[in-house]
Amino acid sequence: MEHSRPSLPLPMVLWRGFTGRCPHCGQGRVLFAYLRVMPHCLSCGEKLGHIRADDGPAYFTLFAVAHVVVPGALWVEQAWSPPLAPFVAATMAAALMLIGILLPAFKGATVALMWRLRLKGDEHQGDGLPSD
Ligand SMILES: [Zn+2]
């Protein structure tokens, strides 16, 4: 069966998702209520709500945050040797803030990637067709 979806460049699709925009048109939003996937794009009508990102966005977010916060904390500790309790509190606050910012971005990018690859996140994926 021929699909009407254009074969958009992968970097553009990922960027649209990362910035919270619809992977198809780049205008509508991909998420609402922080992390919920829009049932369909309010701008172009593309169906998005059937895509299940599962734990992917959490893995990507923790991978990115750990690679920023841990080296940053080690550098600060070596440079200034701050008192332990405020240092741990500030490090945890920085990590939580980054997680809060990056989690919806990585969720949008994951949904956009799955949309581009025509994956749905269930055991009937790959053909891009409804499973029933
Ligand atoms: Zn759209």
Provide structural commentary:
With 132 residues, the protein is mainly alpha-helical. The chain has one domain. It has 3 helices and 2 strands. The protein has helices at residues 10-18, 56-80, 84-116, and strands spanning 31-32, 36-37. The protein has a two-stranded antiparallel ribbon with strand order 1-2. A hairpin with a 3-residue loop joins strand 1 (31-32) and strand 2 (36-37). Helix 1 (10-18) crosses helix 3 (84-116) and helix 2 packs antiparallel against helix 3 (84-116). The model has no long low-confidence stretch (mean pLDDT 90). Bound molecules: zinc ion. Residues 22, 24-25, 27-28, 41, 43-44, 46 line the site of zinc ion.
Which class do the helix and strand fractions yield? Answer: mainly alpha
Small molecules held by this entry: zinc ion
Strand content: under 5%
Question: Based on DSSP secondary structure assignment, what is the total number of beta strands?
Answer: 2
Work out the helicity level: 40-55%
Mean pLDDT: 90
- Over the alpha carbons, how many angstroms does the gyration radius reach? 18 Å
Rough shape?
elongated
Number of helices: 3
Annotation keywords:
binds zinc ion, 3 helices, two-stranded antiparallel ribbon, 132 residues, elongated, 2 strands
Note the topology.
Elements: H1 10-18, E1 31-32, E2 36-37, H2 56-80, H3 84-116
This protein binds zinc ion (ZN).
Zinc ion binds at residues 22, 24-25, 27-28, 41, 43-44, 46.
Summarize the model shown.
The protein is mainly alpha-helical.
